[in-house]
Design a protein that fits this description.
Radius of gyration: 17 Å
Largest sheet: 5 strands, antiparallel
Strand content: 15-25%
Shape: elongated
Strand order of the largest sheet: 6-5-4-3-7
Distance between the termini: 24 Å
Length: 145
């Protein structure tokens, strides 16, 4: 489905819209987007197999700095996200919705996970043409309108 010919005829602008709707809350590409996941601008985006493996099975290979942590607070609340920074007094965690600063003394338990914060089965929600357009955008060598 994602042959070179098909991708060359795809609508990368529509792919950009799909990226902004589906991926940009967590990933940066060409300077825009979130910081929960890796910046995709410099990744191996021209390698279709690399993209497919990371999108289809996002937990297969997760860099340590993007691994999910589960924090349980003394009041019983649980927070899942990616730890951005920490020192002796505070821990800053990026959740899918916000960046939170937690006091270390308020943390009852902490578990690091090898799982990615990226939801699985992202492509299942898209039509074949949407997948083609998204990949055309992801593989583009420069920003599209």
């Amino acid at each position: 489905m994602l042959t070179e010919t098909v991708l060359s005829e795809a609508n990368a602008s529509h792919g950009r819209q799909l990226f902004e709707k589906t991926c940009a809350s967590c990933h940066k590409l060409y300077g825009g987007g979130g910081k929960l996941g890796p910046d995709l601008t410099g990744s191996q985006r021209s390698n279709l197999n690399y993209l497919l493996s990371n999108i289809v099975d996002p937990s297969a290979e997760v860099a340590e700095k993007f691994q999910m942590s589960i924090i349980v607070l003394e009041d019983g609340r649980s927070i899942s996200g990616v730890i951005q920074r920490e020192n002796e007094e505070t821990l800053i965690i990026q959740t899918p919705n916000e960046e939170l600063t937690l006091l270390i003394e308020d943390i009852a338990a902490r578990k690091n996970s090898k799982l990615s914060m990226m939801p699985e089965r992202q492509l299942d929600k898209m039509s074949n043409q949407e997948i083609i357009d998204l990949f055309a955008y992801l593989m583009s060598k420069e920003q599209v309108k």
